[in-house]
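Following up on my earlier thread - several people asked me to post the actual chain instead of describing it. Fair enough. Here it is, all 145 residues.
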Amino acid sequence: MTTRIRPQSAAALLALSMLTPLAFAEPDLSATDALAATMAGKLRLIDIRTPDEWRQTGVAPGVARADFYRGPEALEQSILELVGGDRTAPIALICRTGNRTTQAQKFLQSRGFTQVYNIREGMAGSAAGPGWLRRGLPVESCMNC
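Reply from S.P.:
Thanks for posting it. Predicted structure:
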């Protein structure tokens, strides 16, 4: 039996083979998959939006919060506290539209975090998908954030 590789697959394999040790994978999760994995206890969901944003839309149930705009070192420290210092703990980052999570994911990977997932569609939606809110996924009020 002969296995044929589609041109798209070949291009993907070529791109993967060209990665250097300093190039990090960018694993993504949909909002739905992130909710399921969080509820199953397979990863820690971390919302890196601002307190104003948390109050405006609410937050996912059981989410941890770490304000991205406090700076990279503060973000790293907050996340280390949330995972008990375990840089191998699986975490998923969510923001409004996936821009901050992309930056934070790369930064955390450069600091030795090995399982950082990005919910690129974010809470509000983006080109990556409709987002947590438009998917109708659960949120909790966060008036005291």
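The chain has one domain: 24-134. That should answer part of your original question.
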